[in-house]
Design brief:
The chain is of the alpha/beta class. The chain has a single domain (9-215), classed as Rossmann fold (3-Layer(aba) Sandwich). The protein contains 6 helices and 9 strands, in the order E-E-H-E-E-E-H-E-H-E-H-E-H-E-H. The protein has helices at 37-41, 82-99, 113-124, 147-153, 170-179, 200-215, and strands at 13-14, 26-30, 52-56, 74-75, 79-80, 106-111, 131-135, 156-162, 185-191. The strands form 2 sheets. It has a 7-stranded mixed sheet, sandwiched between helices. It has a two-stranded antiparallel sheet with strand order 4-5. Helix 4 (147-153) links the parallel strand 7 (131-135) and strand 8 (156-162). The two termini are 31 Å apart.
C-alpha cells in the first residue's frame, strides 16, 4: 500500500484549547484540492458550538503550478490513484487515534477531495465515524475493504452538491448517487444555482444535519 506522510501537527487548527475539549464530539474538517487547513476552518462560527472542530492539512503537494495541498494526485479529469486515497484516509485515522482523547464521537466534514477522504475513512472503519458530511465530493469508484460492513452499520451521511458544479466529473456524481443509498443513511440536496462551492443555504442545511447528530444517541 502507498504510505502517505503523517499529518503535520503544527498546522492543525482547533476550535477549542485542550482544557476545553473534554468529551465533546470531535468534528474533523478536510479541505479540498489545492487548499489548506484555513479554508474550512472559516466555517466553524456557523457550525454548532457543541462540537470541537479541528481542521487538518492534507499531506501531499499538488502538481505545479497548483498551490496548497492535496489528499491524492489528480492526473487529468478522470485519473485518481486508489492507493493514495486509501493512504491519506489511513493517515487521518492514525492522527485522530492519537489526539481524540475523551471525545464522545468523531464526525467528518470534507469539501471536494476532502469529501472523498471523509467517505473513504468511513468505508475503512465503518463503526468509528459517527457521520460524514460530503460537500461537492463523491464516493471513490473502487471497492473498499469495509463496504459490506458499512452497508450493515449505515451511518448518517449528508451529501450536498451544486447543479452547476463543472469540476466533479458526471461519472463520479452518477456513481455516488447510485452507491450511497445502499451503504449509508443518506440525506442531502442538490442546489440549483451552486457551482463548486458552498452556499449559505447549504451551510444552513449542514448545521441542521450536525445538530440532528448531537440529538441522536450513539452506540
Amino acid at each position: 500500500m502507498v504510505a502517505a506522510s503523517p499529518l503535520d501537527p503544527d498546522v492543525v487548527l482547533w476550535s477549542a484549547p485542550v482544557d476545553e475539549r473534554g468529551d465533546r464530539p470531535l468534528l474533523v474538517l478536510l479541505h479540498g484540492y489545492g487548499s489548506n487547513e484555513e479554508d474550512l476552518f472559516g466555517l466553524v462560527p456557523h457550525l454548532p458550538a457543541a462540537y470541537v472542530a479541528v481542521a487538518v492539512r492534507a499531506p501531499l503537494a499538488p502538481r505545479f503550478p497548483m498551490p496548497g495541498y492535496s489528499w491524492f494526485t489528480i492526473d487529468g479529469v478522470e485519473s485518481r490513484d486508489p492507493a493514495e486515497v486509501t493512504a491519506s484516509a489511513h493517515a487521518v485515522w492514525e492522527w485522530i487515534d492519537k489526539v481524540r482523547g475523551d471525545a464522545a464521537s468523531v464526525g467528518l466534514l470534507g469539501f471536494s477531495q476532502g469529501g472523498v477522504i471523509a467517505l473513504q475513512m468511513m468505508r475503512m472503519r465503518p463503526r468509528d465515524a459517527a457521520f460524514a458530511v460530503n460537500l461537492a465530493g463523491y464516493a471513490f469508484p473502487e471497492p473498499a475493504a469495509g463496504d459490506a460492513e458499512l452497508a450493515e452499520v449505515r451511518p448518517p451521511v449528508f451529501w450536498g452538491r451544486g447543479a452547476r458544479d463543472e469540476v466533479i466529473s458526471a461519472r463520479f456524481v452518477d456513481h455516488t448517487a447510485e452507491w450511497l443509498p445502499g451503504h449509508v443513511d443518506l440525506s442531502g440536496r442538490v442546489y440549483p444555482n451552486l457551482a463548486h462551492s458552498v452556499s449559505a443555504e447549504e451551510l444552513n442545511d449542514v448545521r441542521v444535519f450536525l445538530e440532528k447528530q448531537l440529538a441522536t444517541p450513539k452506540g
